[in-house]
């Protein structure tokens, strides 16, 4: 405790929740009252059910899913079907699978894909302006290659995506961002301009550690991953949530009534969709909390946790939001409102977390009362409550001693304050506190100060009477003072003055 008598509140710590990153596969490189949607789009669950069926996804399913994942409409889907019809109808459409795989890539770059654009991940937008990135071009290639009977998978690296065609036991990579990207490991002309256009290097098939094969629907889901990343990069966290909800339903059936029948790839490059969904939910909550919208954060956490439970992490959110709101109440000196707030949300906290917040708030309540002491009754009431809290274990003995020390000193200071300057009452109060709670060095220092001040009062009264030549009154004042303070040097000096005067008389 500071000897100046200014006792500071122990405020709660501000908790800032960290926004979690989302892996993007681009290439290289007013208060909301309505919360984002947290129930999956029925189409997401329908696609999941199709994929879980015996036949898996058809090329038409993947085409529909890619346009849905892009946020496109039926016109874009019709463009894919038109391409699927026109490619095999071409007069130079080859007979062998290998030649067909390369033909599809060449056809797309001649007729659809016009310019590489790092963030243009949507398949529907490819048809409106010809711009594409690795994901949108790989998905479109995969759909159309499958439409002519080819077996195609996706490939994912840390910051890139492309396709692989499986022909006769051979896996042939297709870098879809480049018209000469078929079997790129064996194409010199590909390497001459690929990196300069896209900004990244081809990852050869033998570099297993740096690349991961993914399923066609997982490749489609990267459209949504990129859209989520772009939304969060622009701090549109509410927009990212329903995309993550739908992606988790698409890949793992999360939110549906049927049990999950297939597990998606989980690698350093392809995050588990359930974890990805929870991270987006928490990122939106962190955005609300870090914007100072604690009560909105609490409403969001209550809503989202009821649909997508993950107890430990949601408890962190409840704890952080309640903690930060309590701090703002305390800074505004709204202690009663802080207590009401904590009790209102008590059911949302674990007993341990509630106890932690309650302890700090209770401490603040005690200090607020200590700073507001105006009478002996205030001081006695607070001292009794502190002793009871100490005995019950609500606060520890050291903290109880700190608060008691200040409260008793504050009460004694009130008694000795002007105009009354009742030093005797202050002394008596400190002596009684020492008898009740035990010796206290700071109280002893205050006692000495108050005793010196009372002795000084006797001296001043004596001096005033003496100087007015009221000698009898002066002697009575001095006798009273020496009876109370027989060893006080100033009063003993005054006695000598009286004795000298008596000898002179």
Structure commentary:
The chain has 505 residues and is mainly alpha-helical. It has 20 helices and six strands. The chain has helices at residues 42-52, 59-70, 74-89, 97-111, 123-129, 134-147, 188-198, 216-233, 237-252, 273-290, 294-307, 311-331, 335-344, 351-371, 376-392, 397-415, 423-437, 441-467, 471-484, 489-504, and strands spanning 115-116, 131-132, 151-156, 161-167, 170-174, 212-214. The strands form two sheets. A four-stranded antiparallel sheet has the order 5-4-3-6. It has a two-stranded parallel ribbon with strand order 1-2. Helix 5 (123-129) links the parallel strand 1 (115-116) and strand 2. Helix 19 runs antiparallel to helix 20 (489-504). The longest helix has 27 residues, at 441-467. It is rod-shaped and about 145 Å long. The model is unreliable at 1-14 and 28-32 (pLDDT under 50).
State the gist of this model.
This protein has helices at residues 42-52, 59-70, 74-89, 97-111, 123-129, 134-147, 188-198, 216-233, 237-252, 273-290, 294-307, 311-331, 335-344, 351-371, 376-392, 397-415, 423-437, 441-467, 471-484, 489-504; strands at 115-116, 131-132, 151-156, 161-167, 170-174, 212-214.
